[in-house]
Amino acid sequence: MAGDRSLSIFLLFMLQFPLLHGAKILTICFLGGSHYLLMDEISRILHSNGHEVRMFHKFWQGMLPGYKLRTSPYPVTTYSLDKKYFEEYEEFFTEYQRDFFMGKREIQPYFRMMGLHSDQCNVTLNQSLLLQSLRDEKYDVAIVDAHNPCTLLVSEALGLPYIAFFPMIFANAPLNILPVDLSYVPLFQSQLSDRIDFLGRLQNTIMYFGSLLVEMKIEAIFLDPLKGHFPDHSRPSLSDLYRKAELWIFNLDFTIELPRPLLPHIQYIGGLLAKPANPLSQELEDYISESGESGFIVVTLGSMISSSPQIALLKEMNAGFARIPQIVIWRFQRSHWPKELQLAPNVRLLDWVSQNDLLGHPKIRLLVTHGGLNSLMEAVYHGVPVLGIPLFGDQFDNLVRITAKHMGTFIPVLEIKSESFANTMRHVIENKSYKMSAMNLSVIRKSRPFPPDQQLLRWVEHIIQSGGGGHLHPYSYQQPWYQQYLLDVILFLCLSIALILYLIVKIFKLLIGKICFATKQKMS
């Protein structure tokens, strides 16, 4: 009898919490580089845990220069834009690279990129047969790369609930979804840590209002695809779509990110690409063994940047590498190396490097990086110090955090000179405090209760099982803006105080008038 009762309780429990193996999940990614690598990893994690996954993305040859795409275990739906769009995008990215290698940091290229994403979005939403085929599949949820707002529009057009994955630190979009305390939470591209002095808080406040203007500009850029593909009576704004996400997952971890309060529907799940190292090829292992006790360093400036267009910068970096005893493995397209520049004898160029595997090698001494989050979290995982060369986007802020954690330092691209570059590399390698900090962060990262792939899996399954993430959303999402900022309360209090002051003044005037009248009566 006891056994039957236990079985009944177990079956009742299982009915209340059904297994989610076999949920249908659509992942959407319209960008290349690290964006694609992350969304591919998310798709693989969900697929390997029994879910039916399909990725929807646009494909072009330059999405990962030098990278050989892995065979996908899950089905993929791709589409290609017209040649003119790709030519415009390639032209833009070439100009953009040239600008940030020259140290230029302007907002206009970002707006231009968003304009290209908006144009792409119009074309994507016009793929009526393709979108209808995706609707017919009746997916349970979409997981989207929210850095490109078009993924939100596509999810809305498909009628799917969606989980927003953001591959970098907080940028403009989260201003819609998360309260910001400007006294200790640095804004995107502020290059501040959480220890902000008065001038820093002033800068942070001014940048906050600037961010609101940037947000309004992006809303305006995406107004065209919204107007063209959503009826007037049910047309969402971009802000609505940001708030509508069932869950926000940020590619962050508190080993790097500065502590701040988070709402329940915002989760940090960073380091999905950081894993135990696989063995290197025998050829590479033989090359590394030649380094002896000096070891080697890895140089990579991101998945999308296969080489630098600035010969002057290459000369300084190459000469700097020649001054250090370590051998250098530099991810750089060999066909793009200037013929007139003699490569340093301790440097080897590779079109693509397995960065995670190299960082897990016992002879690794330093990572020279642009400061992308994936690279930094792989360095944290393996306990490798960092020298950063920030170029664009969140990289400046990421490296400020690395400096604050004493895991490394960074050099602005225009300040790279061979001698100071070599001295900085030697300093980070030889000053053991950087290595100790990196190893300490590695211990913190690896001792988390659940690895990132399990966090991702459980949160996605929770959202599907509970029918969405509404129970995690704050009521403020439904409030008018004047209620959120307590403007109605402030107005009431101001009017009340004004009324009280008015009554006090009237009473005093009345009393003074009576006193004066009584005094006159006595005098008369």
Task: Please supply descriptive tags for the structure shown above.
524 residues, alpha/beta, 7-stranded parallel β-sheet, 6-stranded parallel β-sheet, 19 helices, 13 strands
Tell me what the structure shows.
- The chain has 524 residues and is of the alpha/beta class.
- It is 48% helix and 11% strand.
- The strands form two sheets. The chain has a seven-stranded parallel beta sheet with strand order 3-2-1-4-5-6-7, with helices on both faces.
- Helix 13 packs across helix 16.
- The radius of gyration is 28 Å and the shape is globular.
Write a brief caption for the model.
By secondary structure, this protein is α/β, with parallel strands linked by helices.
Secondary structure elements and pairings:
Blueprint lengths: L1 H15 L7 E6 L3 H16 L3 E7 L17 E4 L3 H19 L6 H18 L2 H9 L4 E5 L4 H9 L3 E5 L31 H24 L1 H7 L8 H7 L2 E4 L15 E3 L13 H8 L6 E5 L10 H12 L4 E5 L15 E4 L4 H5 L4 E6 L3 H10 L3 E3 L6 H10 L3 E3 L7 H13 L1 H15 L5 H14 L15 H4 L2 H37 L1
Parallel strand pairs: 1-2, 1-4, 2-3, 4-5, 5-6, 6-7, 8-9, 8-11, 9-10, 11-12, 12-13
